[in-house]
């Protein structure tokens, strides 16, 4: 059996497991120039693997790797949730079951299939390894880089989770897809914080998706822009024309189970460990832990301007966790200044 036939067999098995997108690329190193440039400009989030060489060199993860299989799974559910007063806003990526778990289970089956059929070693990563998933997906033809730095597929838009399998098999690579964004710049205009400093350039330190998972005290201007968001930000994806016609997922695991995603702000702010685990632990929003989500819920209370939260906020002023007490102080000031007709604090 030649490599083209093996590639087709792997692709068909991946589709049978439920993957929506499958692409192939070599295990050669990626160009690290843009990462070094972003590091120099201070645009990295600090959540990434610190060693840039590990991020762009697949064989530092599997030294015998010859190919990478890029995989995509849509999370675009056919249900739309309208933000409601007094409720948290949560990214679609965290509506249902944690995609790391969903994709890992699927990818493990694919790895076992490859090992059984072709007697080669393979390893998988789903936002868990050092490699830049988007670089892999782009080079494997899964989609193009959008101006919002997301990978966009013509059928599924950017509502896709990404992962990859490094394998000792040598398989014919697919070709990258050039950007089809054209003159559209809706994502740049819509970004709440101006984190998209130019087409294809993201300052992660300004991005609300990154800030909602950062620990500790957030800058006041970031707090102000978070609105009701407690996890993630979908703004640049929601305005994308490709996403408005994107296919829906067929994965029931990504359909939210009540009370997700409509969680009252007071429930977020006051949740104990038990409530956190019941609502968030099984989703991708749970990885950072209870305190960060609580802090974001307290910030959202301030952005609501609703005086009914004053008593709750006052109870957190002397909290031993700096991020919580700072958020409570800021939110109290914001609500009181609005009540006094002074506008934003």
From TrEMBL:
Hey, what's the signal peptide range on this chain? none
Superkingdom of the organism of origin: Bacteria
Write out the transmembrane intervals. none
**Gene Ontology biological process terms in this record:** tRNA queuosine(34) biosynthetic process
Pfam families per record: Fer4_16, QueG_DUF1730
Q: What are the 4Fe-4S ferredoxin-type domain coordinates in residue numbering?
A: 172-201
Protein known as: Epoxyqueuosine reductase
Which GO MF terms does the UniProt record name?
4 iron, 4 sulfur cluster binding; epoxyqueuosine reductase activity; metal ion binding
> Is the keyword 4Fe-4S assigned to this protein?
yes
Which UniProt keywords are present, listed alphabetically? 4Fe-4S, Cytoplasm, Iron, Iron-sulfur, Metal-binding, Oxidoreductase, Queuosine biosynthesis, tRNA processing
